Please model this.
Amino acid sequence: MGSWEEIERFRTLVIELGLPQQDYALFGVKCPICGKTDRINKLEGPEDLEACPEDYRRLWTLFSSQDALVVCKFCHQILSFDKEKKSVASLVE
Model:
């Protein structure tokens, strides 16, 4: 797991790149940070982006593991999404 600084850098990159590019909310999935249930969107992986910065690729690899990465478009927190449990968790333990 990465440091808080790396999580903030990843979050900043997501905002700067205007991600996610697709606006498909995962309804019924609740953000553990702000409590919103209609603002969780799947982040695109580096392979899905035309011009992917190397920093984004590195941070994606660091945080993605086997879970998908999602972002809450309300509080802009990047979260891991467990498809089996249909739940999200903060990248910070």
